[in-house]
Amino acid sequence: MILEETAALYNTYFGKAYCANSLEILQLIPDNSIDLIFTSPPFALTRKKAYDNMEPEKYQKWFEPFAIEFYRILKDSGSLVLHLGGSWVKGKPIKTLYNYKILIYLCENLHFNLAQDFFWYNKAKLPGPAQWVNVKRIRVKDAVEPIWWLSKTTWPKANNKNILKEYSDEMKKLLSDPTYYKPNVIRPSEHRISKHFYKNNGGAIPPNIFNFSNTDSQSNYMRKCRENEIIPHPARFPIELPLFFIQFLTIKGDLVLDPFAGSNTTGEAAEKLERKWISIEISQDYLEASKYRFHL
Question: With a cut of 50, which residues of the chain have pLDDT below it?
Fold first, then answer.
């Protein structure tokens, strides 16, 4: 069987959502056909979640078959963006290394390149782990999660002109008044501002740190879940994350894949940006509810 002959749970104008074990669908996808894989697999947590998660000690063995398929189906110009947060050792105030072991495996065993690392600061995240942060007071709130941008080659498709941010007031003042800084003067940081610094490039290049709160409550997805007494997926990431990477690493008409789709935030982002997409989720309840993202 090929992917085109496999029934999707639902279709949109740009994408298809499959309810299945990801490996079953990944194996039907042709070699070198995906432009971007953006995904957030279940984290390896000591505390079991409703969406299921693997123990840290077993995580790499579980993840390896997926990773091998990722490398096979990704174009040479494509990218794998992996959001994989850390976890704590059960009963001890120290963190596991499971997610870093995954990164090393991807780069050393499969020969992915780490194009760049990103960090998502979720300022609305609750203090945790409670035992070490709230009770014993020996750790601080764990609110930053890594996101790794990996590629098969050293020159994947990317264009930061697509993700420029509005200039700061300070930069706007500099651009409007060339005398604000004297060019070619060494600053206290030992950086030298050249005359080219005064060129208006249409916006500021964003940093590799995201400051998004995961507090969505008014989207159509959340509203429809409440109206229909459906429990939303408990581990959603903000849509700003896939929007950023899809704009940065793809162009219109490219194909985006999320093999651990959850509530299909990635599919919604790809649809908004007119990219073709494939999403795979093993839970039919979560995938059925994700239809609310598309007004189906």
Answer: 51
